[in-house]
């Protein structure tokens, strides 16, 4: 590597910092152009609030305590639904992944359920569970169950057969092979499924919070829609986006810790 190239990519140099932060320039440029267009009247603020208006509304909602209150409600629904979905999806994946009979019993039914649209299930969930918190949590749980099931099932079935043979040679029982070979080998796929499930959880919540909700980020957005408050709607969308990004970063940090034994996670 030449000295010039080494200089431009060396951490701590001006060029190195430029390479690190240049990914943030396109969104920053979009926000600036958006604000200029709104200030000049090219974009009516009634149709699309400007970034300055959104920032002001964001601060107002936080100061009044309205946004934190709705946020805590939504977080509780997602956490409960995700927890149920992870437990159920993991259980089904273990049954189907570790046994051919289990796959024959569960997989076809789950694949059919996976293709059902969420909106079509809302009337049934209201009839079954009423209009309280139960149908909202049930929708989130159902949506998050399938990514966990699919990825963990695929991870279990993709474990190298040579590793299982090595375990048998070393005298491991089937139970020991499952805990020491199969599950660690399937863990990377399961974590990918968890990342996907977190995204689906927030998408499911948007639908769930339309079911006679009186709190939550989805309720805040739906109420703002009725009053044509695009600034509040965009605040809600930004909160959803930031929550999704934060959750993804948490799982990626978990990946780096629990998968440190993989060469792809070794530091340079």
- Proportion of residues in extended strands: under 5%
Structural class, please? Answer: mainly alpha
What spatial form do the alpha-carbon principal axes imply? globular
| Main sheet specs | none
Q: Nearest-angstrom radius of gyration? A: 24 Å
Low-confidence stretches: 1-9
Order of SSEs = HHHHHHHHHHHH
Can you count the helices?
12
Helicity range: over 70%
DSSP strand count: 0
How far apart lie the N and C ends?
A: 17 Å
Mean pLDDT: 81
Protein model, in words:
The chain is mostly helical. It is 79% helix and 0% strand. It has twelve helices and no strands. It has helices at 3-9, 14-21, 25-39, 51-64, 66-97, 100-114, 118-129, 133-157, 161-169, 174-208, 217-226, 230-258. Helix 7 (118-129) crosses helix 8. The longest helix has 35 residues, at 174-208. The two termini are 17 Å apart. Residues 1-9 have low confidence and may be disordered.
């Amino acid at each position: 590597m030449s000295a010039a190239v080494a200089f431009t990519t060396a951490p701590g140099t001006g060029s190195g910092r430029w390479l690190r932060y240049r990914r943030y320039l396109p969104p920053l440029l979009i926000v600036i152009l958006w604000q200029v267009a709104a200030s000049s009247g090219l974009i009516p603020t009634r149709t699309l609030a400007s970034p300055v208006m959104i920032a002001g509304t964001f601060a107002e909602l936080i100061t009044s305590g309205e946004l934190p209150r709705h946020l805590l409600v939504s977080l509780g629904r997602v956490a409960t639904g995700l927890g149920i979905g992870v437990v159920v999806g993991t259980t089904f994946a273990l049954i189907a992944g570790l046994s051919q009979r289990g796959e024959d019993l569960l997989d076809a039914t789950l694949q059919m359920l996976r293709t059902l649209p969420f909106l079509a299930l809302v009337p049934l969930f209201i009839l079954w569970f009423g209009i309280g918190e139960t149908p909202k949590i049930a929708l989130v749980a159902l949506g998050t169950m399938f990514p966990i099931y699919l990825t963990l099932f695929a991870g279990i079935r993709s474990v190298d057969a040579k590793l299982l043979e090595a375990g048998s040679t070393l005298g491991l029982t089937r139970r020991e092979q499952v805990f020491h070979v199969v599950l660690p080998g399937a863990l990377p796929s399961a974590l990918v499924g968890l990342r996907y499930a977190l995204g689906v959880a927030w998408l499911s919540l948007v639908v769930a919070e339309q079911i006679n909700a009186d709190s939550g980020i989805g309720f805040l957005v739906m109420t703002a829609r009725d009053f044509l408050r695009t600034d509040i709607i965009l605040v809600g969308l930004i909160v959803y986006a930031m929550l999704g990004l934060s959750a993804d970063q948490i799982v990626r940090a978990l990946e780096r810790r629990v998968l440190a034994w993989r060469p792809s996670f070794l530091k340079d």
